[in-house]
Amino acid sequence: MGLFGKGKIFDSVQKVTGAHSYRIQGKSIVCPHCGSDRFEQGSALLNTAGMTFLNLDWANRQATILNCTVCSHVQWFLRPPDMC
Ligand SMILES: [Zn+2]
User: Per residue in 21-49, pLDDT tens?
Assistant: First the structure.
């Protein structure tokens, strides 16, 4: 089972929502590049080579990603932020 075994290279991003504002730890999330507070949310697996080799991708941790809708900068969070 190689990289192309299941035909998945880019499909680790599982869902994308519309543009929203988010908070985490009581603080609004803003893009560090352009200052926008509008993001599309998605999720991605944090694959490790060992777990992939053992065909245990399902056991890898998942991260939330926020994609800035203005400049496309991507931020990663291990804990899902709250949608505002
Ligand atoms: Zn931005």
Answer: 999 999 999 999 999 999 999 988 777 77
The torsion region of residue 55 among left (phi > 0), alpha (psi -120 to 50) and beta comes to left
53 within some domain: yes
Q: What is the CATH number of the domain that holds 42?
A: 2.20.25
pTM: 0.69
Domain span at 53: 22-83
CA of 59 from ligand 1 middle (Å) equals 32
Q: How many domains does the chain have?
A: 1
| Statement: residue 9 has pLDDT above 50 | no
Q: How far does the centroid of ligand 1 lie from the alpha carbon of residue 21, in Å? A: 12
Distance 4 CA to ligand 1 centre (A): 32
